Amino acid sequence: VIDSLPPPADLGATLLQLLASPNLCSRMPVIRRYDHMVGDSTVIEPGGDAAMLRVKGTRVGLAVTTACNSRYCELDPNLGAQLAVAEAARNIIATGAQPLAVTDCLNFANPDRPEVYWQMQETVAGLAQACRSLEIPIVSGNVSLYNESSGGAGIYPTPVVGMVGQIDDYAERLHAGFRHEGDFVLLIGSSHNDLGGTEYLKVVHGKVAGRPPALDLVRERAVSRLILTAARAGLLRSAHDCSDGGMLVALAEACLLAGFGMRGPALEPEPPLRLDAAFFGESPSRFIVSAPSRAMPELQSLARRHHVEIALLGLAGGDVLELEGQLRVPLSDLRQAWEGGLA
Question: What is the mean predicted confidence (pLDDT) over 194-223?
Answer without folding.
Answer: 98
